[in-house]
Amino acid sequence: xxxxxxxxxxxxxxxxxxxxxxxxxxxxxxxxxxxxxxxxxxxxxxxxxxxxxxxxxxxxxxxxxxxxxxxxxxxxxxxxxxxxxxxxxxxxxxxxxxxxxxxxxxxxxxxxxxxxxxxxxxxxxxxxxxxxxxxxxxxxxxxxxxxxxxxxxxxxxxxxxxxxxxxxxxxxxxxxxxxxxxxxxxxxxxxxxxxxxxxxxxxxxxxxxxxxxxxxxxxxxxxxxxxxxxxxxxxxxxxxxxxxxxxxxxxxxxxxxxxxxxxxxxxxxxxxxxxx
Length: 276
What we know:
Helices cover 39% and strands 15% of the residues. It has helices at 21-24, 40-50, 75-97, 116-128, 139-148, 158-167, 183-198, 234-238, 240-249, 260-265; strands at 14-18, 31-35, 105-109, 134-138, 170-174, 202-207, 219-221, 227-229, 250-254. 29% of the residues are buried. A 5-stranded parallel sheet has the order 4-5-6-3-9, with helices on both faces. By secondary structure, the protein is an alpha/beta fold. Strand 7 and strand 8 (227-229) form a beta hairpin.
């Protein structure tokens, strides 16, 4: 929607632009109308609202994703930054090339606070702002919305919630496995992923859980070298059948780095860094 007090378009949403000399001498009108810049911000807001991108993540893009963090100098820290840079490269290429040559979605996995959601939202934003249809859903919130639809007094039906999730061109499902699995949850998410797989629709997924087969021995390290035991694997959280389906649906992008929010910000070495 145009701004009513805009000096360029006077609230019409269109501004007049003059042809260059060559154009005006070719018989075309001396000026032509183009969309005014004042409406561009509203268009972005409308598109991101329609895609359900949360306000917290709307600033996320590839330019402000930091893949050169100021950890204490070590070979391990250099490896963390390489992992961040490689993840950015892969996800940015996916967004740039979509939909040409894109047969699979992405499964972005890694510890809390490494920027998985930032990268996934950056890709979704770039794609929907080019005119494609997309939706953002938090894993837990989606399950809650479906459960709420079972209440006869709830305004939405189960299919009213599920239909856009099943049919949207590209779906971002954030923080998969965040809640303890139940049979109902596994059946529901399995149905969503199977339907999207069968209809060849692209899905972006983020998760804090990895693929280590023996979680009791799965150890990651913070930037200070402290070991952190990984209690569950992704398979523990979503089941073997769904994890197997994800191998077919998505290219896995694993980020190996410590929690930026905990290790850098709490250490008093704050740098501006986007929501993760």
